[in-house]
Every structure is written in C-alpha cells, then in structure tokens.
Amino acid sequence: MLPSDGPCALTRQCRARTEGPESPAPLAGESEAIMQPRADRGWYWWLWWLSRYPLCLLRFAWVLINNMYCIPVHFFYLGLASPLLLIRPALYWRMERIFYEWLLCMVSCWTGSAGYRVLESGDRLDDLGDQAFVFMPNHQSTADVPLCMTLFAARPKFCQHVMWIMDKVFKFTNFGWVAWMHCDFFILAGKAHRDRSLVELKSHLTEAFVQQDRRYLVLFPEGGFLRKRKQVSQAFAKKNDLPHLNHCTLPRTGALEVVLDVLGPNSSQKSANNGVNLVPRDGEPPCRCLTKLVDVTIAYPDGMPLDLLNIAFGNRPACTTHVHYRVFDVHDIPLDPDGRKTWMYQVYADKERLLSTFYQTGVFPYDLVNPQGQPPKELVHDGRRFLFLHTFYITSTYFMLIWVLIPLYYMCI
Description:
8 strands; alpha/beta; disordered N terminus
C-alpha cells in the first residue's frame, strides 16, 4: 500500500532503500516540477508517477462533465421561471438564490473529492447568526475562490445571501455567467479604472446588495494574487515605513471605504445626504446594515498554494488547508480614512505573524493574536446532499435534452 502523504514520503522511502541512511531527505517545500522519476528511486515511485496521470485526466473529465450538466440546467430553470419577474419578482430571486447555492455545493464537491481538507479556527462564523458582515480573505491563488465557496456551502443557506466582489476577467468564464445573474460585482483592476470602479461599486451595492437581501460581502483587500503584488507591496512598505510582509501584501482600502460608507452603521444618514435609497422594494425583506468585519487567513501547507488546476485534476497529493477567522465589530473600526487604513495594516501585520509561525513550525497558531480563538476543527460536508444534487442535475439534463432541446432541433431542421 502506498503511503498516504504522496511523493515526498515515497521519495524518502526509495532513497533510504537505494542510497542508505546517509542520504538527505528532500526539503519540505520541494517542488513537484523537479521531482521526476529516476531509476534510483525504486519501482514504488515509478508506479505512483505513472498511475497518477490517467486518474488525473479522468478526474478532469468528470469536473468538465459536471459543469456541462449543472450550468445549463441552472439557466434552463431560471429561464422557465423568468415570467415570475413580472408578477412575483421576490419568488423568482428566491429560486435563483437556491440554485446558486446548489452550484456552489458542486464546487465544494470538487475540493473535497480531491482530498483537500479544510480546518477552521479562531472565531466561529456560525456564531454570527443572521448578522451582515464583510468577509475578507488574503489572496494567494486561483484556489481561493473555490475554497471560500467550500466554506460557504457547508453552512445551510449561507450561499444564498453572499455577494462577491471579483476581478472582471471572471465574468467571461462559465461560472462568471452564473455570478453575473446572481448580481455579483465585477471590478476592473488597475489605477486607470480605480475611481470609476469605486463609483460603480457604490451604485451596485445600493441596487443589488440592498435590494436583494444580501448579507455577506466577499472582498479581497489585497487586490490581486500574492505572487503578483508582493514586490510592489514591499517597495511601498519600505518607502512609507510600513510593515514588511512576506506571506501577504498590504491591503487596499478604497473598496472597503465605499462598502462601509453605503452599508456601515451610519449608512442611513449618509445615504439621505447622498441621495441613496436603502429602502428595499415591495415584498423584499428589510436591509441589514453591516455589523461585523471578518478577517480570514488562508494558510496552505508549506506556503505552497493550491490552484484551480490542482482542484480540477487532483494532481497534488491530499493536504490540509487552515482557515482562521477574526471577527471585528464595525463600531470598533476608525471612521476616518487614515485611521481605517492604519487599522487594516495592523490586521495584516497580525496575519503575517500567523502565516510566518505556521510555515516555520507546521502547527497553526490559532491563539497567537486572539487568546480566545477556538482550536482547528475540520469542515464537514453532507455526502447525501452531494448525491441528491448530482442526481437532480443529471436527471434534469436528461429531461431537458429529451423534451426540449432535441424536439427544438428537429423543428429547426
């Protein structure tokens, strides 16, 4: 039986057998790219290396087919329900939220089936109840968004009330169409578009977050991946005598200021002065002002982030990702922009301490910056729910083809 921890363990065993006890073990963060099969590593390695790629291709085919029978069904049912927009819009958007939640559950199924476990620590999201909050993770790779979806899908009805602020490039992907229909916000990155994007964000929050009963807003304050922003962030920190960060980057606060200006505790008074209407449409529930900010620290093993291809192919050995929460009351955040920016820099300095300690020791320091933080607990999903959803989407695809698409095709020819 092959060791459960993948190629690193196999490498150590093969070297021990072929080179003797004096052979040094590979580094903990050794890249897979340089760990190619060699004759001196034994037939165990060859067996593992040769057998993994057909399985990865099969898994990728499954993920691709899963997209093909889930997303068309999503649009098909919402298209059938579209007349409700004229007579009962609240019912239509409730249906849309349910289908959106189900699609996020499908994404979480990809992550879990690849063996990528998640441990949560610190403050508990479940304790927030129905409060509205901003969810602010650090941003390292393309796996961050599926990981957050996995966190949300494990909590009943959480996905239905979430809104994402994401890069506009995602709008042109298959899930981007779903997010667009869900009224998520796509921000155009770059200094040239920053001011216009913030104005559009303010309008969108009023029209979508307020009017459609959103409660949770996902915002990546760093504004880009760690590998892309690290050098610029460190140069800015050195120039302005700010904390030097290696495992995260200094956050940008422009979007957060807009969010708090529109949805914060003083938003009603400010909106009256700025002409913004926070009163929901007829039949919609009352708007909830933001009460909490949730700082989220995502820590991948050995500081090597997963990416979207790892999740799709499952080509990286099973591993555990730590997610740490710190919940802050909105009233404790400084009101002035400079004070708010300093507060955010301190939050990210604490995040740097968490990540640095974890990468050095291999043990996540859940109580380092928050003595009352809860120890890590594994995130668990209900397998029966996954089974139901796969059955629902496959069955719906069959009926959509037999009773709608194929008859339409023959009518057209």
